[in-house]
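seq as requested:
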Amino acid sequence: MAEVVNIETDILIIGGGAAGCFAAVEARTLEPGVRCLIMEKAHIDRSGCLAMGLNSINAYLHPGETPESYLGYVKKEFMDLVREDLVLSIAEGLNDTVKKVEEWGLPIDKDSEGRYLPRGQRGVRIQGERLKPILAEAVRRSKVEVLNRVAATNLIVSGGRVAGAFGLGVRDGKLYVVRAKAVIVAAGGASGIYKTANPGDARHLIWYSPWNVGTGYALGIRTGAEMTCFENRFIALRVKDVQAPTGMLVLGAGAKQVNARGEQYLDKYYKDHPVKSAATYFRLLATMQENSAGRGPCFLDLSHLRRGSEEARRFEGDLLNMSPSMALLWAGRDDHDGGDSRFEIAASEPYVVGGHGEAGYWIDVKRRTTVPGLYAAGDVAGGAPKKYASGSWVEGRIAVRTALEEIRSVGVSDVDAEAVEVEKRRVTAPLDRSEGIAPQDMEERLQKLMDEYAGGLSTRYELNEEKLLIARDRLSGLRDSGVDMLKAGSRHELVSAMEVVDRIDVSRVLVEHLLHRRETRWPCSQSRLDYPERDDGHWLRFVNSVMDKKTGEIGIIERGLNDNDRL
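struct tokens:
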């Protein structure tokens, strides 16, 4: 049996990404004596979705922009269904947090007068290849304790309040029991739910971090926290195979979006299409329609960008700061010798992520979840899309400030010894099985199921009730019996087994949300063949859910646009 390590702290932060690192530094800045600990599955130097770097801050208020104008933009993009209070609170803190990270060492491009160079209307050009190490170094300077390579497995609940978390040592195999006065979940969204575009050894070449598996969501789901907007899946339009961001090519290098005939096709759809105001969905939908009409594949055309020019050198620097695989692809194209400067674009598999989309915990404006003692920030916090890295910093700051206020009257709770034993047996059970299903095989079963019956790549993301009901039934079978058949031959496989359990729990909630929303509000993201129209008269409301901790049943709750109170 695994050795048990007991740790006590004031604030436990699960996830050492953008939101988690910022929250930890903020805690020690405001109260230097507070005990703050980050539990991170990988290593905070290069973990999470910022691991490879970033070449722009995508949420920033330039002169002339206000929090209210930013809210208007987000509402328009997401067809009016957003938490206005949350989006406003993010917008109000964007510029201050960006300035703070610049003080920590992030290089931000500026003009001759010292003003940030914009990238698009709400972006800032940065040299962010080392953004994650910069955040990690700020954590170290603040003397925050970090448990690297410890994967959270479940939350600890005592007296109806979250009182810490269990963690599995990725390398040492120990069970960590961390008792805390408050827990902030900042562990990121979920990839690997659906079958990926690239098979075999290339299956992890995807848009979102392959190691963000939905654990942050699953911890709350199993604890009975209320979740929101899981049906608002995020599907990225990317440079095919290398998964490079299309926005980098369009906004950073002036690429034109064209079909196989070289025709720029967005305008003809934009003029009359009902979702023309929602660029997030429109560019993807238009591309899919061009392919269906036989005018694909579609491309981003960079033929205007001449090698050696100042614009090309700047573009190459952008690639190295964020997408080295795209830099190699670009370097292999020789436009002077008749090479093709068009790059094929394609849609990704769906993801569940609250930073680009809005799936996550139902929270109040202080980032409290519906379970006392539990807070959420970043990609796991729901209702406020388009927050990106800078918005995650804001949410980390808000969450930790709330936690600091509330822990003054809270002590560290004891953990029931039997609860520790139950969790230890649950976590280590796959190591004890001589026969069973390998985590990768279970993951592939899940992804095939979700792809075929819950709107994956092979079905053009399209949904209908009959298929979703099959998905519901088969997911229940995986959760009820398949999980008990997981077999691990190593500690690495044991962590993978825990990850596939988390993915199944997230998938079950996702399917319930997709079933309940009987309209098509976000084309491609949530396209119901049996309910193809948007229906503001009945469905301009949030679809939320809570899982019963005893039965595992998932109940749906509808909430209005202004229903922001905690339960």
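The radius of gyration is 23 Å.
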